[in-house]
C-alpha cells in the first residue's frame, strides 16, 4: 500500500500478484487509477515522500526496493539533451548502465522507426548521429533503458503521441525481447489498438488503486462474462475493460435481463476476482528457478566503477561543450565587446600614475575587469537550471551521481575559463596601460582565471539550490548584490561597522579585487614616495585609502582562497545534487467512485438534453483547398551529404474539402504531414513556401478572417500556468464570442462546455506547468479542447485531440465534437490511435502517406465498408481480419514496409481513380461562390473592442501575477533582504561628511540603489514574461486580442510592483543610512528609485520581446547592465571619461539616477571636507569639480527617465507585434 505521508491519501491498496518472466504484461486503468505509482513501486523508484508497505520480490531475492541491476523504470516524460542525437543519448545510457552498448538492438530499432518519421526525415539523408531529439522522438525513452542489463522493465505510457502502426511495431519489438531474452516487461498504455493488445500475454486492470483483474489476456473477457458482462463483437477489448467499471457505461455490456441489472461496484468486481480461478500458466524451460538465480548472479557482477562513470560523464560534457558552441561564441562576442568599451574608456593615453586620483581611476578599471568576469559567468545559472530536470531523471533511472556531473562540468569549464580570462586580459592590459611587465600580465590572468572559476562554481551552486528559473535568478542576483557590496569597492572596509567585517572576508569578490589591485599597485612605477598612515609609496597609499590589502604575500593568499572557494562551491553543488529533490511534484488526483458516478450522471443528463453551441450564433462554412504544396528550405550543410535539392517538400498537391455537418478524420503514419496540412489551412505557418488555393464558401481565404471563424487545438497544450481552469475558459469566451452574446449567456456556455469535457470537478484547479505541476497531461488536453470549444467556431481544427487521453476521456471528447458537427459546425481532426467506435464516428477520411501525399479522400461508409472496399481492391493488399480495427488496418497497409512489399504507390492509384475525379468535381463546384452567399465581412479585426480587450487582458495578468506565489515571495524577500543589507552596511553613513571617502560612500549608496534592486527584479521577471509571451502567441493567433492589449496588460501588471518595491526599499534604507529627514529629499529619493526600477523592469520586458528565449534575454540584459554599470559615473566620473564616451553618460539611466540621488541629498551641503593631496573644499565644490555633478539638471534627468521608459515600451510593442519566434 502507498499513501501520502501527510494526508494519508491512499493511492494503491492491497495489491498482490505475480508477474512472470518471458511475458509482457499490460496495465490498464483510467488516469488517476494509480498506474504510474504502481509501476514505480514495482521498479523500486517510488517517491520517498510516499509511504510504502508491503514486499516486492525479484526472482528469488526479496527486497523493499528493487535491485538496481534487475529493474528499470521508463518515464512518460521525455527529458533529454536537445543538443544530443539519438545515438549519443542511447550510448550514454548504455555506458552508464555498464553494457558498452552490447544490447544495441534498441538503437537499431529506433533507427528503423526514424526512417518512418517525416519530422526526422534527415535520418534518411544523414547518419543516425545527426537526428536530434527535438524532432519529437518520444520513443527514445524506452531505448535508454533497454540497452541496460535490467531483467524487468516497467514502462509508463510510452505510446503517447505515436500512431497505432508505430506503437504496434514498438510493442512487437518489446515482445520479441521479452520472449527471446527472458525479460519481464510491464507497460501501461492509454488506448491500445486491438492488434497491439493481442501482443500482450497478461493484463492487470487497475481501478481506484485496486486490482480488478490480473491474469492472461485471453481470459480477461471470460472473467467478466462469468459476472454477466460481455464485450461486443466490434468493441476494442481494452476499451471494454476500462468502461465496464463505470456506472454510466456498464449497463450496455450486461447480457442478462435488463430489468435484473444491478450496478457492480469496484468492491463487487474485486470479490468476484478473488473467487475466480485464473487458469495456471505453464512455464517454459527459460523461466525455471535455476535460470532465475543465474540471471540474478550474472547481474551482480556488472557494476560500473566510479572511474568509468566519470569517464562517461566527461565524454558527454565534452560533446555538449562542442555542440553548445553558439553559447560560447555569444560569450566571446560579449566579452570582446565589453573589453573594447573598457579599453577605450580607460585608454592608456589618458591614464597617469602621478596622484591618488590617478590610482583611483586605475582601481575603477580593475574593478570593472573583475565585475565583467563575474557577470559573464551568470549564464551558468540558466544553463544549469535548464539541465536539472534531465539530471533528476538520470539520477533516478541511471543512478547518475552528482559528483560525476560536477567534476565533468568543472573540467570542461577550465578551457572556457582560460579562454574568457585570456581574451579579457590580453584585450585590455595594453590598451589601459597596466604595469608594463610580462610577469604582472600573467599574474593578472591567473587572478582573473581564479575569479572566473570561483564565479562559475558560485552560480552552479545557486542553480542547484534554487532549481527553478525564478528562484535561481533571484538567489543569483541576491548573491551578486552581497558579494559586490562587501567586496571592498562600493564601500571601503574601513567604513564598515566593526561587527560587519565578517561580510568583507566572506565575500569572494574581496579576494578577486585584492589580487588584481596588489598585482598592479605594488609595481615599481607606483613606488613614488608618498606618506599616508603606514604607507611609504603611492601605490600602498591608494590601497590603504580604499581599505585594501597592501602586502605582496596576500596576492598568493587571495589566489589560494579563490580556488578554495571554487572547491567549496563545487562540493556544495555535489551535495545539493545528491540530497535535493526536483522542486516540481505533481499532486495526486484521486477521485472516489461515488464522486465519479455523480459526475458521470451529470454528464449523462447533459448529453441527453444539450447540444453544444445550439443557442450561440455561428455561420456554417465550407473550406475548400486545391493543389496545396508546402516546402521548407533545407540546411546548407545537407549538401555535403549528397543532397542536391534546396527545398524539402512536405505537402504535394493535396486537395479536399471540409463541409458543415461533416466530421472529417485526417490520418496517416507518423510524419505524413497531417499537422503540417492543418497549419497551412488554419494560417498558422510562419515560414516555408505555400502554393495552392484555399477558399471559404468560394471566396479566397484571408488570414484575418480565418483566425476569427476557426478554432485550432494544437498538439502542445499551452496555457497560462497560474490561472484556474474556469478562469482560462472565461477569459477565452470573453474575447472570442461575438459581442452580441450577453455575459450571462457566456457564463452558462462556459459551464456547459466544462460539463461536456468533464472539467467541472477541476473548476478551481490551477493549470500549472506542463510535466511539473498542476493538471495532468489528459486534463490539460481536455482544457485545450474546451478553450477552443467556448469560441463556438464555424470551423474547428483539432490536432490529435485524443492523444494522452484514456479511452473513456477520448470517447467523451469525440462525443462532444460529434455534437458540434450535428449543429452545423465544420470539424476536422487528426488522430493517431482511434478505437473502432471513435474511428467510425467520423463521416469522411483524408488519408496521407509519408511525403505529404493524399492516398484516400472519401466517406468511411457504414462499418467503414467504403474505405475497406477501396483498399481491398488494390492488388496485393491483405484483407482486413474479422474484428480488426479499420484504422489500424489502413495505417498498417499504408506503411513503408507494406508498400515496398506489395510494390504499389497508393498516391498514384488514388490520382488515377474515379474517387479522385469525383472529389475534384465536388471541389470545383464548392470553389464557386453561391449566388445567395456573400464574402465574409467582419466589421472589425476582433470581436471585442480595444477597451474590452485591455480590460480582459489586465484581469488575466492580474490573476496570473497574484497567484504566482514563487515570484511574489522571492520578489519581496529580495526587496527586504537588499534593503536591510544596504541599511546595515551603510549604517548612518550619510549623517557625517568629513573626508572625501564619506562622499564616495554616499556615492556608493546611490550607485548600489540605482543598480541592484532593479537588476534583481529584472532577472526574476524574464522567465515569467517569456512564458506569458508563449501563451500570447496562441491567443493572438486565434484572434483574441491585439498585441497592444497584451502589452498594456503586461505593463499594467507590473505597475504595483514598480511602486511598492521601491517604496519598501526607500522606507528601510533612507533612515538607516542617516540621510536628512526632510520630506522633499525623501520624496526625491523615492521618485528616482521608482524611475530606475521602472527602467529596469521595462528593459527586461523589451529584452524578452527581442530574443527567442529567456536565456538569451538574460545574456543580453546582463551585457546592457554591465554597460550601464560602466557609465554610471561611480566607477569613473564623467569628467574622467574620454570625450568620445561622455555622450554615453547622458544616455545611461543609472547615471541619471545616481545624479538625482546624490544631488538631491548633497547638493545643498557646503561644509568643508578633507581631500587627500588637495586643500579642504566644500562638498558642493567637490561634487562639481571632481564628480561633475552640477546643479540644475534634476528636471532633465527626470524627463530622460520617462522618455527612456516610453522607448522601452515602444520597442517592447514592436517586438511582440512583429517578431514572432514561434516557428511553424
TrEMBL record:
One of its GO terms (molecular function) is ABC-type transporter activity. InterPro entries: AAA+_ATPase, ABC2_TM, ABC_transporter-like_ATP-bd, ABCG_dom, ABCG_PDR_2, P-loop_NTPase, PDR_assoc. It is found in: Membrane. Keywords: ATP-binding, Membrane, Nucleotide-binding, Repeat, Transmembrane, Transmembrane helix, Transport. Pfam families: ABC2_membrane (PF01061), ABC2_membrane_7 (PF19055), ABC_tran (PF00005), PDR_assoc (PF08370). One of its GO terms (cellular component) is plasma membrane. Signal peptide: none annotated. It is a multi-pass membrane protein. This is ABC transporter G family member 34. It comes from Zea mays (Maize). The lineage of its organism: Eukaryota, Viridiplantae, Streptophyta, Embryophyta, Tracheophyta.
Amino acid at each position: 500500500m502507498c499513501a501520502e505521508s501527510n494526508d494519508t491519501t491512499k493511492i494503491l491498496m492491497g495489491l498482490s500478484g505475480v508477474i512472470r518472466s518471458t511475458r509482457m504484461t499490460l496495465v490498464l486503468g483510467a488516469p488517476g487509477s494509480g498506474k504510474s505509482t504502481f509501476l514505480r513501486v514495482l521498479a523500486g523508484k517510488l517517491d520517498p515522500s510516499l509511504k510504502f508497505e508491503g514486499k516486492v520480490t525479484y526472482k528469488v531475492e526479496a527486497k523493499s526496493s528493487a535491485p538496481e541491476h534487475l529493474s528499470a523504470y521508463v518515464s512518460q516524460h521525455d527529458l533529454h539533451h536537445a543538443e544530443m542525437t539519438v545515438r549519443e543519448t542511447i550510448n550514454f545510457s548504455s555506458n552508464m548502465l555498464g553494457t558498452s552498448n552490447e544490447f544495441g538492438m534498441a538503437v537499431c530499432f529506433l533507427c528503423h522507426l526514424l526512417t518512418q518519421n517525416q519530422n526526422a526525415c534527415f535520418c534518411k539523408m544523414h547518419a543516425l548521429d545527426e537526428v536530434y531529439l527535438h524532432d519529437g522522438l518520444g520513443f527514445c525513452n524506452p531505448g535508454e533503458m533497454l540497452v541496460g542489463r535490467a531483467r524487468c522493465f516497467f514502462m509508463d505510457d510510452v505510446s503517447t503521441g505515436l500512431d497505432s502502426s508505430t506503437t504496434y511495431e514498438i510493442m512487437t519489438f518489446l515482445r520479441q525481447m521479452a520472449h527471446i531474452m527472458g525479460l519481464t516487461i510491464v507497460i501501461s498504455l492509454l488506448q491500445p489498438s486491438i492488434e497491439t493488445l493481442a501482443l500482450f500475454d497478461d493484463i492487470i486492470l487497475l481501478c481506484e488503486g485496486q486490482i480488478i483483474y490480473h491474469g492472461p489476456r485471453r481470459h480477461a473477457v471470460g472473467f467478466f462474462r462469468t459476472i454477466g458482462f460481455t464485450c461486443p463483437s466490434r468493441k476494442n477489448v481494452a476499451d471494454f475493460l476500462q468502461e465496464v467499471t463505470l456506472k454510466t457505461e456498464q449497463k450496455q455490456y450486461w447480457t442478462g435481463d435488463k430489468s435484473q441489472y444491478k450496478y457492480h461496484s469496484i468492491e463487487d468486481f474485486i470479490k468476484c476476482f478473488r473467487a475466480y480461478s485464473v487458469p495456471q500458466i505453464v512455464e517454459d524451460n527459460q523461466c525455471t528457478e535455476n535460470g532465475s538465480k543465474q540471471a540474478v548472479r550474472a547481474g551482480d557482477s556488472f557494476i560500473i566503477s566510479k572511474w568509468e562513470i566519470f569517464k562517461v560523464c566527461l565524454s558527454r560534457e565534452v560533446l555538449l561543450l562542442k555542440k553548445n558552441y553558439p553559447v560560447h561564441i555569444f560569450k566571446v562576442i560579449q566579452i570582446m565587446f565589453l573589453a573594447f568599451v573598457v579599453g577605450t574608456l580607460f585608454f592608456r593615453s589618458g591614464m597617469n600614475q602621478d596622484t591618488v586620483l590617478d590610482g583611483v581611476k586605475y582601481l575603477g578599471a580593475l574593478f570593472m575587469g573583475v565585475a565583467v568576469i563575474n557577470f559573464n559567468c551568470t549564464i551558468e545559472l540558466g544553463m544549469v537550471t535548464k539541465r536539472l530536470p534531465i539530471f533528476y531523471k538520470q539520477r533516478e533511472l541511471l543512478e547518475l551521481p552528482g559528483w560525476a556531473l560536477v567534476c565533468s562540468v568543472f573540467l570542461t569549464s577550465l578551457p572556457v575559463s582560460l579562454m574568457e580570462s585570456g581574451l579579457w586580459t590580453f584585450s585590455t592590459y595594453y590598451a589601459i596601460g597596466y604595469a608594463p611587465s610580462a610577469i604582472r600580465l600573467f599574474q593578472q590572468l591567473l587572478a582573473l582565471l581564479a575569479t572566473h572559476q570561483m564565479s562559475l562554481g558560485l552560480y552552479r551552486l545557486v542553480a542547484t539550490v534554487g532549481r527553478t528559473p525564478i528562484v535561481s535568478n533571484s538567489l543569483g542576483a541576491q548573491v551578486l548584490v552581497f558579494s559586490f557590496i562587501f567586496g571592498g569597492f562600493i564601500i571601503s572596509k574601513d567604513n564598515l561597522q566593526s561587527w560587519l567585517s565578517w561580510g568583507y572576508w566572506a565575500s569572494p569578490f574581496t579576494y578577486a579585487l585584492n589580487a588584481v589591485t596588489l598585482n598592479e599597485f605594488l609595481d615599481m612605477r607606483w613606488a613614488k614616495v608618498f606618506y599616508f598612515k603606514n604607507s611609504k609609496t603611492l601605490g600602498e597609499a591608494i590601497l590603504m585609502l580604499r581599505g585594501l590589502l597592501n602586502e605582496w604575500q596576500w596576492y598568493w593568499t587571495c589566489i589560494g582562497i579563490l580556488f578554495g572557494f571554487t572547491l567549496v562551491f563545487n562540493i556544495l553543488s555535489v551535495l545539493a545534487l545528491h540530497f535535493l529533490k526536483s522542486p516540481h511534484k505533481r499532486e495526486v488526483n484521486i477521485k472516489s467512485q461515488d464522486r465519479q458516478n455523480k459526475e458521470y450522471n451529470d454528464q449523462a443528463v447533459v448529453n441527453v438534453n444539450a447540444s453544444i453551441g445550439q443557442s450561440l450564433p455561428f455561420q456554417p462554412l465550407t473550406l475548400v483547398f486545391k493543389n496545396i504544396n508546402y516546402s521548407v528550405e533545407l540546411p546548407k550543410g545537407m549538401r555535403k551529404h549528397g543532397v542536391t535539392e534546396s527545398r524539402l517538400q512536405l505537402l504535394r498537391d493535396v486537395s479536399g474539402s471540409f463541409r458543415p455537418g461533416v466530421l472529417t478524420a485526417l490520418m496517416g503514419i507518423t510524419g505524413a504531414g497531417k499537422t503540417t496540412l492543418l497549419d497551412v489551412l488554419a494560417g498558422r505557418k510562419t515560414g516555408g513556401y505555400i502554393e495552392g488555393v484555399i477558399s471559404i464558401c468560394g471566396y479566397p481565404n484571408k488570414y484575418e478572417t480565418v483566425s476569427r471563424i476557426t478554432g485550432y487545438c494544437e498538439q502542445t497544450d499551452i496555457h497560462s500556468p497560474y490561472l484556474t481552469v474556469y478562469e482560462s475558459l472565461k477569459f477565452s469566451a470573453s474575447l472570442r464570442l461575438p459581442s452580441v452574446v450577453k455575459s450571462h449567456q457566456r457564463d452558462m456556455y462556459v459551464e456547459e462546455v466544462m460539463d461536456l469535457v468533464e472539467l467541472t470537478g477541476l473548476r478551481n484547479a490551477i493549470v500549472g506547468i506542463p510535466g511539473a505541476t498542476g493538471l495532468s497531461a489528459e486534463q490539460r488536453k481536455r482544457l485545450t479542447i474546451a478553450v477552443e470549444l467556448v469560441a463556438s467556431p464555424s470551423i474547428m481544427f483539432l490536432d490529435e485531440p485524443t492523444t494522452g487521453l484514456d479511452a473513456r476521456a477520448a470517447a467523451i471528447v469525440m462525443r462532444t465534437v460529434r455534437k458540434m458537427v450535428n449543429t452545423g459546425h465544420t470539424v476536422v481532426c487528426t488522430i493517431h490511435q482511434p478505437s473502432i467506435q471513435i474511428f467510425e464516428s467520423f463521416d469522411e477520411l483524408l488519408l496521407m502517406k509519408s511525403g505529404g501525399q493524399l492516398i484516400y479522400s472519401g466517406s468511411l461508409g457504414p462499418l467503414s465498408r467504403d474505405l475497406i472496399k477501396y483498399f481491398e481492391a488494390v492488388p496485393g493488399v491483405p484483407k482486413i481480419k474479422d474484428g480488426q480495427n479499420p484504422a489500424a488496418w489502413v495505417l498498417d497497409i499504408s506503411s513503408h514496409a507494406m508498400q515496398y512489399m506489395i510494390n504499389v504507390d497508393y498516391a498514384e492509384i488514388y490520382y488515377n481513380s474515379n474517387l479522385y475525379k469525383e472529389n475534384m468535381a465536388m471541389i470545383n463546384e464548392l470553389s464557386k461562390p453561391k449566388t445567395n452567399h456573400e464574402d465574409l465581412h467582419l466589421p472589425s479585426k476582433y470581436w471585442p473592442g480595444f477597451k474590452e480587450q485591455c480590460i480582459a487582458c489586465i484581469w488575466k495578468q492580474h490573476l496570473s501575477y497574484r497567484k504566482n506565489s514563487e515570484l511574489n515571495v522571492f520578489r519581496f524577500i529580495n526587496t527586504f533582504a537588499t534593503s536591510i543589507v544596504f541599511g546595515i552596511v551603510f549604517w548612518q553613513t550619510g549623517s557625517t561628511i568629513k573626508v572625501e571617502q564619506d562622499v564616495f560612500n554616499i556615492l556608493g549608496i546611490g550607485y548600489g540603489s540605482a543598480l541592484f534592486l532593479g537588476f534583481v527584479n529584472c532577472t526574476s521577471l524574464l522567465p515569467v514574461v517569456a512564458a506569458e509571451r508563449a501563451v500570447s502567441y496562441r491567443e493572438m493567433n486565434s484572434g483574441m486580442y491585439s498585441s497592444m492589449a497584451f502589452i498594456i496588460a503586461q505593463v499594467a501588471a507590473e505597475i504595483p510592483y514598480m511602486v511598492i518595491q521601491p517604496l519598501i526599499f526607500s522606507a528601510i534604507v533612507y533612515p538607516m543610512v542617516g540621510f536628512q529627514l526632510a520630506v522633499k529629499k525623501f520624496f526625491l529619493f523615492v521618485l528616482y528609485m521608482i524611475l530606475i526600477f521602472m527602467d529596469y523592469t521595462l528593459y527586461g520586458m523589451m529584452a524578452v520581446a527581442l530574443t527567442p528565449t529567456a536565456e538569451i534575454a538574460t545574456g543580453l540584459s546582463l551585457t546592457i547592465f554591465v554597460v550601464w554599470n560602466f557609465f554610471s559615473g561611480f566607477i569613473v566620473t564623467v569628467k574622467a571619461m574620454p570625450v568620445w564616451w561622455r555622450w554615453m553618460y547622458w544616455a545611461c539611466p543609472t547615471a541619471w539616477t545616481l545624479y538625482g540621488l546624490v544631488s538631491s541629498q548633497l547638493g545643498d551641503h557646503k561644509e568643508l571636507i578633507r581631500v587627500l593631496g588637495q586643500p579642504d573644499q566644500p562638498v558642493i565644490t567637490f561634487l562639481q569639480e571632481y564628480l561633475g555633478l552640477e546643479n540644475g539638471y534634476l528636471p532633465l534627468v527626470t524627463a530622460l527617465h520617462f522618455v527612456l521608459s516610453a522607448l522601452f515600451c515602444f520597442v517592447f510593442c514592436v517586438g511582440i507585434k512583429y517578431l514572432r519566434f514561434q516557428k511553424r
